Amino acid sequence: MEAVNRPPLRYGMQLPVQSQSTLYAEAWEASAGPGDLVEIARVADRAGFAYLAVCDHVGIPRRLAAAMSTVWYDPVATLAHLAAVTEHVRLLSHVAVVGLRHPLLTAKQYATLDHLSGGRLILGVGAGHVREEFEALGADFRQRGALLDECLDALRAALGPEEFPEHHGKLYDFQGLGQRPRPAQERVPVWVGGSSPAAVRRAALKGDGWLPQGDPRDRLPAQIDRLRRLRAEAGIEEPLTVGAITEPLYVGRPGWDAGRRTLSGDPQELAESLRAYRAMGVHQVQVRFRSRSRAELTDQIEAFGAEVAPHL
After folding, report:
1. Is 47 helix (H, G, I), strand (E, B) or coil?
2. Which of 11, 18, 29, 116 is nearest to 71 (CA)?
3. Would you say 71 and 112 are in contact if contact means Cβ atoms under 8 Å apart?
4. 23: Cα separation from own chain's centroid
5. Which of 129, 172, 189, 307 could bond to 267 as cystine, CB 3.0-4.6 Å?
């Protein structure tokens, strides 16, 4: 009876084109542009996706450029653009490296985005991993965990209801500076990214949600147990939105080599596989589809929304 009453598994996606790491970018994305991004966002919006996600990097050093590429759209500009061409889908930064910027600047940008989108922002945050970005922007890479911890406290204040937010910490100190517009949401959800012990603890104690970074299925139950235990020990009763990133998907039987790890098959087969995440305690899955063109990707998005999602 418990499984029957469990709420449906929500599904979202990181957008293609806007970040083109060789770990996941498809060949067709190299020549794609804003028009493709808009069409994909509109299709996902109509297909019932819970959110669209955009990444955050300011600059990629030469030592990493071959693997990561240097294509990383700005998350605030991109999500604001897509907010204007969609209606329902939420807008997720996955993840904003908030330690690179002063929290008042981050709050100004994301509060405006939430205001303009009618309250569709989910602020995903992470510590970051590219040393040169921190050095170029005058932030301490070695202290990025502490930076993120205090940024989260400062952002809670700066994205709250007060027009004149106040925060007094070791790294940031502000009061008496008014910021309008305020976010449309009473409380902007903050999802914390990362799978290290420190990141999981941060998500449990400071987040409204957890965004794992590539945890395989067999590792998720222990991580989720730790999240629950940490929140219980801290006396936090509010629910935490637990996420997972699925294997690459293909709805149907691809007539081409979609990769050894790709989950493919009829909609019921895929849904059965994805329901295993829900059984672990996952609330939302981030999906990524294999594709050889924008048209094939939008076909996959539509098929997932119409044929797989109803079985979740």
Report:
1. coil
2. 18
3. no
4. 17
5. 307
Give the span between the Cα atoms of 191 and 200, in whole angstroms. Answer: 11
CA dist., res. 45 & res. 308, Å (int): 16
Where do the H-state alpha helices sit in 102-196? 103-117, 131-136, 144-158
pLDDT digits (tens, 9 = 90+) for 92-129: 999 999 999 999 999 999 999 999 999 999 999 999 99
Average pLDDT of the residues in 197-201: 98
- CB 125, CB 55: distance < 8 Å: no
pLDDT exceeds cutoff 60 at 1:
no
Nearest to 79 by CA among 126, 142, 12: 12
Residues forming a β-bridge with 223: none
Core vs surface per residue 182-201: b (16+ CB within 10 A) or e:
bbbbeebebbbbbbeeebbb
pLDDT bucket at 6, cuts 50 / 70 / 90: confident
Helix residue spans in the chain (DSSP H): 2-5, 34-46, 62-68, 75-83, 103-117, 131-136, 144-158, 197-206, 220-233, 267-280, 294-303
**Structure pTM?**
0.97
Contact 308, 270 (CB under 8 A): yes
Q: How many Cα atoms sit within 13 Å of 64 on the Cβ side?
A: 15
pLDDT tens digits, one per residue of 176-187:
999 999 999 999
Three-class secondary structure of residue 208 per DSSP: coil
Position 2 confidence tier, pLDDT thresholds 50, 70, 90: very low
